[in-house]
Write a structure and sequence with these properties.
Layout (H helix, E strand, L loop, with lengths): L4 E10 L2 E11 L4 E5 L6 H9 L6 E6 L2 E2 L5 H10 E4 L11 H6 L8 H6 L4 H13 L15 H13 L5 E5 L7 H18 L2 E5 L3 H7 L2 E6 L2 E6 L6 H21 L9
Parallel strand pairs: 3-8, 3-9, 6-7, 7-8
Antiparallel strand pairs: 1-2, 1-4, 4-5, 9-10
Helix pairs in contact: 5-6, 6-7
InterPro entries: AAA+_ATPase (IPR003593), ABC_transporter-like_ATP-bd (IPR003439), ABC_transporter-like_CS (IPR017871), ABC_transpr_PhnC (IPR012693), MetN_ABC_transporter-like (IPR050086), P-loop_NTPase (IPR027417)
Protein name: Phosphate-import ATP-binding protein PhnC
EC number: 3.6.3.27
Length: 266
Amino acid sequence: MAATLTLTKVSKVFAETKAVDTVSLDIEPGQFVGVIGRSGAGKSTMLRLINRLIDPTTGSISFDGVEITSLRGKALRDWRRDCAMIFQQFNLVDRLDVLTNVLIGRLAEHGFLSSMAMQFSDEERTMALQALDRLDLVPQALQRAGTLSGGQQQRAAIAKALVQQPKIMLADEPIASLDPANATLVMDGLKQINKEDGLTVLVNLHTLDTARAYCDRIIAMRAGRVFFDGTAAQLTDDVVRDIYGTQGLREFNEAVTSTQSIAVPA
């Protein structure tokens, strides 16, 4: 059953820098949430705190009544399986074929020996092919991952996350390095999974148009704090100006006008 993700006064301090500053949020089941803000606003740090790639300095994170910040050992590994993470850099093994890369998402279910031997069942192979089919990548299943385009690699990374059978999916700037056409395919894939599976998706984005087009809810961060939390309709130009500041908004507008906008989903 779907559950709420709760952050309560979460902070993360690196030396003299407070990357995340007393953030409190409830992410409801099945929401598609976009996180925006200037570089250094704390977006990526917040996702890494949720996935427990790093530990908070203070505060707590819970999911379905379980205190995530106290997990250790197998319980922590299980959480990282349940809370799938998609990175900007794809995190695929270039020399392995796409199908094997996706199957690596199943290793959390294996013992040490079968993990080392990369032994997968027919059922798992079927699961991986079904995930690739959902992302229009079956023709590339036996192709080396390193030969794919960036957009194809990111969709393969989503398929890899999908076979983990997660309860929540995090994506850290998944389209930052992609052209508009591939960015649309990636975002369409994430939105399809969100709608069809009822899976909670939390995604860091660097373009406002994308957040407005795809997200049920938009959270804006500034200097480590939540500065805005609402719908796309509530994200007015005045609010955007407050989030990015005059200089930041100018830089953002220059970046947007230098590329085509991402296609708005039907």
